[in-house]
């Protein structure tokens, strides 16, 4: 390929071009193949830095649940640990100790009967935690079936269609039938009655969501347990619960401490959460815990000795970053219970201010409200609005730097198109007021136009998970 084929080369700024010329290097740097000669580190940095300038501002991204802000001290600490591999526990025993401390803190926070006897692991995120939780549910179900001489070839897992996509992946990867309970416009989450209606002798468990991706609300975990208790009384079926607390695991203990959803409920056998969501860590770290040692079979625990020393490993991944685990412990140490409580209360207050401000605009209707839930909510347009859509509003807000996802709800609710707002650490009251101002300005712009707007892009192009 010719060097002057610009379709394969980076457009460079004058500074970089001058440096390349002075070093007697080709002015045009290939995009999609290795150059014959590498660049000095400062030039490579400048090229990539310039390329990334048009990325969105992470602090204005209200689409993602993933953390975008940490204290400078935490960032410095994580940079110091950037080269540590979490799996090398023999090489980095102090980092491994911090992982164990984090697990014990979470076990106590989630009311394990004996936090010292709970078992778990850090992961690269909640998706891995969900995979591990589901895998253990399947293992226990299969062992019971084999012991009773029963068919163990058709396992199923019960959950709502509002679950995160990782559960679809789990069922596909581990050959489990997904028993999806459709949500409805008047019921956007799973309830105990709907869950039980899908359960049978092949059900490995029920997944309850503590903080729906779609609207931020908690599913009634205690109500699901109550219905499963009644099912066992009628049929003898003993079906466990896994709680996907990807977001709520770090929120509910502080803004809803009396809510029953965790290991206080006997059917809850395992819980996963994302440290890089409301745990306050930059991506990516997650956690999964089982309520007691016997809940995690020995057959699913492995040991390796080729890194130096005998080391147990539970996660599906092998090498994992140690820096994020250190960042998690920093937050535990820095914030403490009071700090986390204050943070969640502040985020809830800001989310409520934004939700109430939008609800006051006649063009919108709240689908959910963040009071006592995640600091997350969704809105849809009032039926009277016919000449513009939430997708077009999402596009308009991008002009001011805001990333507000517009999308349709899952099956049986596809007619509902919403905007979702995720309020995280680093989002201030001043930013909330500016967002409301920009929304009002955008709405006024749409209302000033006559006739329908051009067709929007597809929802998939707007949904950022």
Report on this model:
With 465 residues, this protein is α/β, with parallel strands linked by helices. The chain folds into three domains: 6-54, no CATH class; 72-332, Aspartate Aminotransferase, domain 2, CATH 3.40.640.10; 338-461, Aspartate Aminotransferase, domain 1. It has twelve helices and 13 strands. Strand 4 (203-209), helix 8 and strand 5 (241-244) form a beta-alpha-beta unit. The longest helix is centred in the C-terminal third of the chain and has 37 residues, at 323-359.
Radius of gyration computed on alpha carbons: 25 Å
The portion of residues assigned to helices is 25-40%
**Overall morphology:** globular
What's the helix count? 12
The proportion of strand residues reads 5-15%
Q: Numbering strands along the chain, what is their spatial order in the largest sheet?
A: 1-7-6-5-4-2-3
Mean pLDDT: 89
Q: What's the number of extended β-strand segments?
A: 13
What are the salient characteristics of this protein?
465 residues; alpha/beta; Aspartate Aminotransferase, domain 2; Aspartate Aminotransferase, domain 1; seven-stranded mixed β-sheet; four-stranded antiparallel β-sheet; 12 helices; 13 strands; 36% helix; globular; disordered C terminus
